[in-house]
């Protein structure tokens, strides 16, 4: 399918923001709602997008979006989520941060924390927190995944088993309607499971787009966590489920 200039622009917006909304696109591109709906239908038919109620999301299939594209997606929301999460992590504490662009945002939000120890299998997190002289950074060994600076593998899992920290802060690729936390890479999933096992409290940081995506590997459930930090309300079903599970939901709104 040869894309029109407008369809190419729609695809760029979807890849950058994770989701596009019909009314918003019509306003931004100065065309009718019917034109946008037709464009989205054609893009979905060609396999570029997945239609959802009111718009579309970037199609991901069984492989993740490239790290550089993920880093730019919903970056302002990720920064708010990170600040909300960091506010629940006190000085004089220890934590593990896993691979992900939202956990990297959390690292930025921890730059003013005092006397903290951060264990990570994310080279980007380590480089960010190197700027905080009051933070001891412990970097896991393992096999380097050049695409995003992550360290994975059996060596990484064994290394993390040596720690018991106050907090685990993890990101993910998707959360399904039943509250299952999903990812693409089984090696990364094994490491993230080890991280959760070695922490007294577990937090998930994820923007709203992850609730509209799917991935093939199950990491855990929201029921296994103490809190989830996100930027929009969960579905009614998940909200009730989190209440039953005792999983706190913290919304990092525009304010």
TrEMBL record:
SMART domains, alphabetized: DeoRC, HTH_DEOR
Pfam family, one: HTH_DeoR
Residue ranges annotated for the HTH deoR-type domain, each copy included: 3-58
GO molecular function terms listed in the Swiss-Prot or TrEMBL record: DNA-binding transcription factor activity
Keyword annotations of the record: Repressor, Transcription, Transcription regulation
Protein name: Glycerol-3-phosphate regulon repressor
């Amino acid at each position: 399918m040869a894309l029109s200039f407008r369809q190419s622009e729609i695809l760029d917006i979807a890849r950058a923001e994770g989701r596009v909304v019909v009314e918003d696109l019509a306003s931004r591109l100065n065309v009718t709602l019917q034109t946008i709906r037709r464009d989205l239908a054609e893009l979905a038919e060609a396999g570029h997008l997945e239609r959802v109620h009111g718009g579309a999301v970037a199609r991901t299939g069984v492989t993740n979006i490239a790290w550089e594209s993920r880093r730019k997606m919903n970056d302002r929301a990720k920064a708010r989520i990170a600040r909300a999460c960091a506010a629940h992590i006190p000085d004089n504490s220890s934590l593990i941060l896993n691979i992900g662009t939202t956990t990297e945002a959390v690292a930025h939000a921890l730059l003013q924390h005092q006397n903290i120890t951060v264990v990570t299998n994310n080279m980007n997190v380590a480089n960010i927190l190197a700027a905080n002289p009051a933070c001891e950074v412990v970097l896991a060994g393992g096999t380097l995944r050049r695409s995003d600076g992550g360290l994975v593998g059996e060596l990484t899992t064994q290394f993390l088993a040596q720690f018991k920290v106050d907090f685990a802060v993890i990101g993910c690729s998707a959360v399904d309607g039943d509250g299952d936390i999903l990812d693409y890479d089984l090696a990364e999933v094994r490491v993230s499971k080890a991280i959760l096992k070695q922490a007294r409290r577990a937090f998930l940081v994820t923007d709203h787009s992850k609730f509209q995506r799917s991935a093939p590997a199950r990491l855990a459930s929201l029921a296994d966590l103490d809190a989830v930090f996100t930027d929009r309300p969960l579905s009614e079903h998940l909200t009730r489920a989190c209440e039953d599970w005792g999983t706190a939901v913290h919304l990092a709104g525009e304010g």
